[in-house]
Amino acid sequence: MIKASKKALISVDFTLDDEIDFYENDLSKSAKNELLKYFCKKDFNFFNLPLDLSHLSIFTQNVLLELKNINYAELISYKELAQRLNSKAYRAVGTALSKNPYLIILPCHRVIKSNMQIGNFTSNVKNAKEFLINLEKAKL
Q1: What pLDDT is stored for residue 39 in this prediction?
Q2: 112 forms bridges with which residues in the sheet?
Q3: What does the angle CA 136 – CA 96 – CA 20 come to, to the nearest 5 degrees?
Q4: What residues does 51 pair with on adjacent strands?
Q5: What is the pTM of this model?
Q6: Are 82 and 89 in contact (CB under 8 A)?
Q7: Which positions ≥6 away from 68 have C-beta within 8 Å?
Q8: Host H or E run for residue 10
Q9: Per the residue annotation, which of 4, 108, 111, 132 is the catalytic one?
């Protein structure tokens, strides 16, 4: 589900609820088009989509914005993400990722545990993180 105001995306999330009313605007249409390209393994660009992270702490904003620097199909650990932010607080990084309102667009699915286990993913869709990781690997 894509939620957008006239100025910025509000959230992108998976849902299993088919009874949600959906109203599109130009921004949600643009996000939808880029997400379709992503899922169809075509060239996509999420960088032009305005995001509103202002309701989140500065630390959480920094963590989420750093996700833009993880290459497509690249996996890094929570610890490595923390190090990129000059922090040792890798558990806090995990907590910040759990607040990501822009699944896929800010690719928190590319962050895994140091032992190469998948880790958590904030979605009510089972195995969504594994699906996204495998989708990206398949394009390479």
Answers
A1: 92
A2: 77
A3: 70
A4: 9
A5: 0.87
A6: yes
A7: 47, 106
A8: strand 9-12
A9: 108
- Is residue 40 flagged as an active site residue? no
Please give the pLDDT value at position 16: 56
First-last CA distance in the chain: 27
Contact present, 25 and 68 (Cβ < 8 Å)? no
Checking phi first, is residue 127 left (phi over 0); if not, alpha (psi -120 to 50) or beta?
A: left
pLDDT, position 124:
66
- Spans of the chain, pLDDT less than 70: 15-23, 124, 140
CB atoms within 10 A of CB 78: 23
Distance CA 101, CA 104 (A): 10
Q: Distance between CA 35 and CA 12 in Å, rounded?
A: 10
pLDDT at residue 10, rounded to an integer: 81
- Amino acid 140: pLDDT: 64
Number of neighbours of residue 11 by Cβ within 10 angstroms: 15
